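[Meeting: bench + compute handoff]

Bench side (C.D.) handed over the final construct sequence. Compute side (W.E.) agreed to return the predicted structure before the next meeting so the bench team could plan truncations. Sequence as handed over:
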Amino acid sequence: MSAASEGFTCHPGERYEMPIVFGPTELPQVSQWGWLRALDITFVTDPAAVRPLVPAELDLPEKPTVIFSRRTFDQVDYLAGHGYEELCVGISVSHNGEDGPTKGNFWPVMWVDQVRPLTVGREFSGFGKLAADFTPIREESGDLSWEMTEYGTLLARGAIRNVKPVDDAVLGKIAKVGSIGYAFCARYMPPVVNSPGVDEVTRCEMRSQITSVKVGDAELELASPPWKDAPNGSRVMSALSSLPILELRQAMVIEGTSSFDRSTITALPRKRSAGTPVTAVAANGSVR
């Protein structure tokens, strides 16, 4: 019997994504987003309120910020040049590792309107992505606005009013700071019989080339729909909409390009509370 007729197995050294039996992924190790625009609305929140949404491995600053980043991507290499829409929710954190502290954002949830960015984000990095529908970004008289819905039910809407470009000096500073960023995610796959599953916090290095920055006044509305109207996002929106907005900061509109080297995805050592048992799966499938 030939090797090909013996059935499928993964080859060591190759990278796969679901569905795996059709061979190694064509997803490049380093992906390029040829154009992006991010409408960033940020607010300061109460650390006690946001702490339950952040893994124990990560530390919060004294005044943690939450960012709602409504993004449009185009010229995406692994989508054959097509694009997608996304809303990313991030919380400012740091991780104190062997080489010292690393600052970045923990991304508890993201919404996208395309399947593949959702699946590869979850599988490789641990980005907690859900599906949603987006209105096109509306531009009128210096204002930008958007809405995100699930089955026609509003989840969130935002606007940036009186948008104006920053001067070259400010653009240069923002471009320098934003050229390298760190994303922290929670990668999880439930345990099953004879497998412990996956439960880890990851860190990814993201690179951007920022070419344009504008600022404006932020408006943000977060809905909390019942489960029957938004079965995918209801519990998420209930938690997000309850976060106190202590200070709504100046919004930003950022344009440029981005790249992501997946070899930078690193699992962090897990921190478990004293006495917390490690989940195990019995032979009969019960969790103990």
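W.E. noted at the follow-up: Residues 277-288 have pLDDT under 50 and may be disordered. C.D. will use this when planning the next construct.
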